[in-house]
Every structure is written in structure tokens, then in C-alpha cells.
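ZP: hey, is the zinc ion complex queued? I don't see it on the tracker
AM: it wasn't, my bad. submitting now with these inputs:
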Amino acid sequence: MAYVCTKCEEEVDLNPVEEKIICPYCSNRGVLKTRSDEAKTVTAR
Ligand SMILES: [Zn+2]
């Protein structure tokens, strides 16, 4: 499960089962779920 910190925008790998969601980089407690769909690049012919 991939998350992105709302503060430093670093990609963090967290376990959704754990209640404590803290960014390991800046200790920010706000992360957003990232969908793999957004990472896909669609190439138009
Ligand atoms: Zn952060």
C-alpha cells in the first residue's frame, strides 16, 4: 500500500492495519493514499 506524505510529499510505505500513520521522514501525521492508476502514463496514438 503506497502513501504520500502531505507535508514532504515523500512516498511512504505504511501498514494500513496500524493506527499510527506517521511519515518516517518528517514525522507528519498526514498521508494520502496513492492509486497506481494515477501513476500510469497513457500514451495517445
Ligand atoms: Zn513527510
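AM: back. The pocket of zinc ion is lined by residues 5, 7-8, 10, 23, 25-26, 28 (CB under 6 Å).
ZP: great, adding it to the tracker
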